[in-house]
Design a protein that fits this description.
There is one protein chain. This protein is mainly β. A hairpin with a 2-residue loop joins strand 74 and strand 75. It is about 0% helix and about 40% strand. It starts with a helix and ends with a strand.
Length: about 1000
């Protein structure tokens, strides 16, 4: 299969899987797969008899198994009867004699055991603890002693918290966790400089020999872990006290005739290391590498970083005692017994195994960073598997340049937060741990630029997604806010609020890291569609949620730690109402959560700790406790389902998602189909009428809402007749609301369908006065929801055309014309856009999309400084700069003229046509200047945009041109060169003309809407 064909096949397969996975019943969760996946892998276990069979633990969120080398994965811990214990908080504990015999210790400290690879589980209750808990280990292993007894042994890092009743140190169980024995060590293991137990290793042939590594102390047991003695305390000479701080030590034992030998890797200070080798079970030692004293490799072996208790490994090849691999973030590899090392960058992108077994690019993991575990296969030479934050990686040869991702369909992504679009094509974006930004468009996922935990937010009108920590376009990074004053908190959760009647206004509460301990969430505002932001004045409170109502007089509502605040002047002045005393806020970036009914802004809800949700119907003056049925966890998210009768969804940390109908007395658990207890965020995706849940470790999920409904337009909404130009009449929705473009449209005349998927209905001279027009709309992804307008009668509103040729509007550079929302560029209908202008330099002549390449949808006309005119057409929302493939910056269909085609400071007619089949032609002064076939996608992709159509600048006021405009015309047919030339000096025919402006020095009256076009001066 050719590479291009393979990519197409993979995308088709992904789309089919997504379609099949979509839930059809309310509240039934299904995973939105990402293939090949990524996500932090904490531990791995390889079947010594079958290299295709592997266990994986994705960041303590359950144990998964593959039996086909990583193409498909299944969670075995999801069969544990109690859903609160289906995670696996420590490493994978496997019986060395039976790969099907596995132990799992949950986040709540309960131990479960399976002997049939997860088909059934037994709950092993610790009889020595009042709550039956097992210790919360840092690491725990299973081994068989010389009498073939199964022993569990593990290290506990601290007491308290998750370990009540257990002190730090070493614990051992000989009865599968029914009881645990504390093992005394001398000197004590929790000495902060040299103790703090890290790793357990076993002699490969002498079953009772167990090694235990601290930071500088190495212990040995000769009685299967019943007692330990100090084997060696590693030291080194330095006058610098900072260098005497030891990092975690890692040890590795050898196989076969060298089984008495072991390696130890000691980390000192920052990234410096020492590598020791003992041929005789620690009786004698050889120093192989010492970066401080310049012995062997001059840097630290853990990828030139310090070793860590959770990101590092140090392993020896079972087939070559001189082959070692060590890693923390980056990796190093030695082939001479640890003296010299080769550095391997963490930024190397892996390949990936796909569902059909083919190898392609890894679409989601941008690197191999934060390596946690590596296992050599004990019987298959050269075969090794590692777990890192980009997933599970496999190598089958030494000195191979690249790893191969075998994460398959394992849902292991660590989502911090997600955002979804309000308008346009379905779009989801999220920030993840270590594998950059993930975006979902047109049924497939991609990996975008943006480092781990980048705080992202979305402009819901334009689908522009901002990655403040990783700016990739000028004006889209740190300079959004207050320059040089702070560092953005990578793991914050931004919240946006939009004004649907004034789409240029956008509000966002954003966490800023003022110092190492505080991340206050200030409120910022934009009045230019998100091009720039400034702090909302007169507000020193941290803001955790916000809303702008959809009432005739918009009301801004925000939720702070102690109160709800409202403003009728967008933040200039505030009214404050305190929460009741029993309502206690939490700390951090999710101190409280809030929801508002935007149609009735006095209806508000707030959630915080102790499972408390409070409600008010008078804007916070009085409150009711609405917590019945909720567990006593922190309520981190509240979603009010707009358009419903009053449905609420609440995310309770550690317990799951709960639902409450308007008049219900109690909340009910809403987790059907989702196996674990934690989501990090939930969002309502209105175009698809689904609730999205982002989990920290189990990927992204979706569930159909309880009562799918229309959000913006109720039955009986108003439509209006816009115009009657020479017998051609146009109709559209009568609303000041910016209409989302995720609708299907069906127009009816006297009950018979008259047009579909057209936001504007155009009728020819054959329509009759008194005929009745009605519109039916439904979301594209949820056509079962339908809303019908009231009927209106066709009226004769013929208006004489202003056909004066010599009039024009002169504009200085920086001034541009805003025509408003002009949704006349339908996918399944011919159209022509034509204007006559005199431009004085390079820039944007006209368009309804911004000139930036990223996230753009729509069209624009541009001229460069050599007079070359370009037409950019983007029927799809563009992808961002991808970390996966070499995505072109500009993904539009582009028609370019030859240089000098447009002469500056001379009048010219500039026009383009797009047919219903997608053929686009550009004309200059009636002469064809170029053509291109665009992506019509079966008549579903239009060039309409939620942004306004503008002249002499893009809708953001960027790339302005000084010049003059005589007229703008839009036709519902493709004009020919003959027709365009015929109408250049005077409008001869109006057949198909549906939009027309003749500009004058003092006004620009749109004949289509009978409104005056706005003249904007960019500050």
């Amino acid at each position: 299969m050719k590479p291009a064909s393979r990519v197409i096949f993979i995308l088709i397969a992904i789309c089919a899987v997504l379609k099949a996975a979509s839930p059809s019943k309310p509240g039934l969760w299904s995973h939105i797969p990402m293939f090949a996946s990524a996500g932090r892998i904490y531990d791995l276990e390889l079947n010594p008899d079958n290299p295709d069979e592997i266990y994986a633990n994705p960041d303590n969120d359950g144990i998964f198994i593959t039996v086909d080398g990583g193409r498909h994965w299944e969670p075995i811990t999801d069969n544990i009867p109690d859903r609160f214990h289906r995670n696996n908080y420590v490493n994978i504990i496997v019986d060395p004699l039976d790969f099907k015999h596995v132990f799992s210790i949950s986040r709540k400290g309960q131990l479960y055991e399976t002997q049939d690879q997860g088909k059934s589980w037994a709950h092993n209750i610790n009889q020595g603890h009042k709550d039956g808990r097992a210790p919360q280990f840092k690491w725990v292993e299973a081994f068989r002693d010389s009498h073939n007894n199964l022993i569990l042994i593990g290290t506990v890092p601290n007491s308290g918290g998750a370990n009540p009743g257990f002190k730090p140190g070493l614990y051992r169980s000989a009865n599968s966790g029914i009881s645990w024995e504390y093992i005394d060590l001398v000197p004590e293991s929790f000495d902060k400089k040299k103790g703090l137990l890290q790793e357990i290793a076993f002699h490969k042939s002498k079953k009772d020999i167990v090694y235990l590594a601290g930071r500088a102390r190495l212990y040995i047991s000769t009685d299967a872990g019943l007692s330990f003695k100090l084997l060696k305390e590693f030291t080194f000479e330095s006058e610098d006290e900072k260098l005497k701080i030891f990092q975690p030590m890692f040890i590795s034992t050898l196989y076969g005739p060298d089984a008495d030998a072991l390696y130890a890797a000691v980390s000192i200070g920052g990234s410096d290391t020492q590598v020791y080798y003992s041929p005789d079970m620690g009786k004698s030692w050889q120093l192989r590498q010492d970066s401080i004293n310049k012995t062997g490799y001059p840097k630290g072996i853990f990828g030139n970083a310090s070793s860590s208790s959770w990101t590092s490994f140090f392993e020896v090849d079972p087939f070559d005692k001189n082959h070692l691999i060590a890693s923390s973030v980056g990796s190093c590899e030695s082939y001479d017994g640890g003296v010299n090392w080769e550095f391997q960058s963490w930024a190397k992108r892996p390949d990936a195994v796909y569902a059909d077994g083919t190898i392609g690019i890894s679409p989601h993991g941008g690197h191999n960073a934060d390596n946690h575990v590596l296992k050599f296969h004990p019987k298959l030479q050269g075969f090794k598997v590692k777990g890192c934050d980009a997933g599970i990686m496999r190598k089958v040869k030494d000195h191979q340049d690249n790893w191969t991702n075998i994460n398959g369909d394992i849902p292991a992504f660590l989502w911090y937060s997600i955002v979804v679009n309000e308008f346009g094509d379905r779009y989801i974006a999220g920030n993840t741990q270590d594998v950059n930004i993930q975006t979902y468009r047109y049924g497939s996922w991609d990996n975008e630029i943006g480092y781990e935990g980048d705080t992202i937010f979305i402009n819901p009108y334009t689908n522009i997604t901002y990655f403040p920590c990783s700016p990739i376009e000028k004006g889209e990074g740190l300079d959004f806010f207050e320059q040089n004053m702070w560092v953005i908190s990578s793991w914050g959760c931004p919240r946006t609020a939009v004004n649907y009647y004034e789409p240029s206004r956008l509000l966002i509460s954003f966490p800023l890291r003022i110092d190492k301990k505080t991340t206050p969430k200030h409120l910022y505002q934009s009045t230019d569609y998100g091009m720039s932001f400034s702090r909302v004045p007169n507000l020193d409170q941290e803001v955790y949620a916000s809303n702008i109502s959809r009432t005739s007089e918009p009301l801004l509502t925000i939720f702070t730690r102690k109160s709800i605040m409202t403003s009728q002047d967008m933040g200039q002045t505030w009214q404050e109402q305190l929460y009741p005393q029993y309502f206690k806020a939490q700390g951090g970036t999710k101190s409280v959560c809030g929801a508002v009914n935007p149609d009735k802004p006095n209806e508000v809800w707030a959630g915080a700790r102790d499972g408390k949700v409070i409600a008010s119907s008078d804007g916070g003056k009085t409150w009711n406790d609405l917590s019945a049925g909720l567990p006593e966890g922190q309520v981190t998210e509240l979603c009010f389902h707009e358009g419903s009768a009053g449905d609420l969804y609440a995310l309770v940390k550690g317990f799951g998602i709960y639902y409450k109908a308007e008049n219900a007395k109690e909340w009910i658990l809403w987790n059907t189909g989702y196996p674990l207890i934690d989501f990090s965020e939930i969002r309502i995706d209105y175009p698809s009428q689904q609730l999205l849940g982002a989990s920290y470790g189990r990927g992204l999920w979706q569930a159909t809402l309880m009562h799918p409904c229309e959000r913006f337009y109720k039955n009986g909404f108003a439509i209006q007749q816009f115009s009657d130009i020479q017998g051609i009449k146009t109709f559209g929705i009568d609303s000041e609301l910016v209409t989302p473009d995720y609708y299907n449209y069906q127009w009816f005349i006297n009950g018979k369908e008259a047009g579909s998927n057209k936001p504007i209905l155009t009728l020819g001279p054959g329509s009759s006065t008194g005929d009745k027009v009605k519109l039916k709309i439904s979301p594209r992804r949820y056509p079962d929801i339908s809303t019908e307008s009231a009927e209106i009668e066709i009226q004769s509103k013929a208006r004489a055309l202003d056909n004066h040729w010599d009039s024009s509007l002169e504009l200085a550079k920086g001034c541009f014309v805003d025509l408003g929302i002009v949704e006349l560029f339908s996918a399944n209908e011919d159209f022509t856009f034509e204007l006559t202008a005199r431009v004085k330099g390079s820039g944007i002549i006209a368009g309804n999309r911004r000139h930036f390449y990223r996230d753009a949808k729509g069209w624009y006309l541009k001229v460069d400084d050599k007079g070359e005119v370009s037409l950019f057409l983007s029927p799809r929302q563009n992808r961002n700069l991808s970390k996966t493939t070499d995505t072109p910056k500009e993904q539009a269909f582009i028609i370019k003229t030859e240089p000098g085609k447009l002469i500056f400071d001379q009048w010219a007619q500039i026009a383009f046509t797009v047919s219903k089949t997608g053929l686009a032609i550009l004309y200059i002064d009636g002469e064809k200047a170029g053509a291109i076939q665009t992506d019509n996608a079966g008549g579903t992709l239009s060039l309409n945009n939620v942004l306004r159509t503008t002249l002499l600048a893009d809708p953001f006021g960027q790339k302005p041109i000084a010049g003059a405009i005589r007229n703008v015309r839009i036709w519902n047919k493709c004009l020919s060169s003959f027709n365009l030339n015929l109408n250049r000096s005077r409008l001869i025919t109006t057949d198909g003309l549906i939009y027309y402006i003749n500009f004058h020095a003092d006004r620009a009256l749109e004949q289509f809407t009978n409104k005056t076009a706005r003249i904007i001066t960019k500050k």
